[in-house]
Amino acid sequence: MKPQKNQSKSMKIDTVLNINVAEEIDVQVNGQEESLTLYEVARWASLMKGLDYIDEKAAQLKIDLTKDKTWLKPLALQKYIDEETPSVIANIKNLKDTQS
Fold first, then answer.
1. Distance between CA atoms of 46 and 26, rounded to whole angstroms?
2. Is residue 73 part of a domain?
């Protein structure tokens, strides 16, 4: 059976994972408690994970990121965040549920 052309575009993370991504999560930001949605927390976590990966690879290749700006690839980082977000949502939800 062939998937329909627009099938993947209509799928949303909360539907596929069966997780409420609008659920509020309290996080500490600069010593203050902030309330973000599960989706927002996952996006921020994915961004930080992507930047950590870039930093790790640059260290392996002995690239000074403060001097060399050729590593700046916003579209690649955006794609990484988009691909990583569903798994981060599931991980955060599992951590939150096990701590409750």
1. 17
2. yes
Q: Which domain holds residue 46?
A: 7-99
Per the structure block, which two tokens stand in for 60?
Answer: 């392996």
Query: Using one digit for the tens of pLDDT, what is the confidence trace for 39-96?
Result: 999 999 999 999 999 999 999 999 898 898 887 788 999 999 999 999 999 999 888 8
User: Quick one: tokens of 33?
Assistant: 């408690």
* Residue 1 counted as domain residue: no
What's this model's pTM, rounded to 2 decimal places?
A: 0.78
Q: Are 90 and 60 in contact (CB under 8 A)?
A: no
d(CA 3, CA 15): 17
Q: What distances in angstroms separate CA 1 from CA 4, 6, 31, one per listed residue?
A: 9, 15, 53
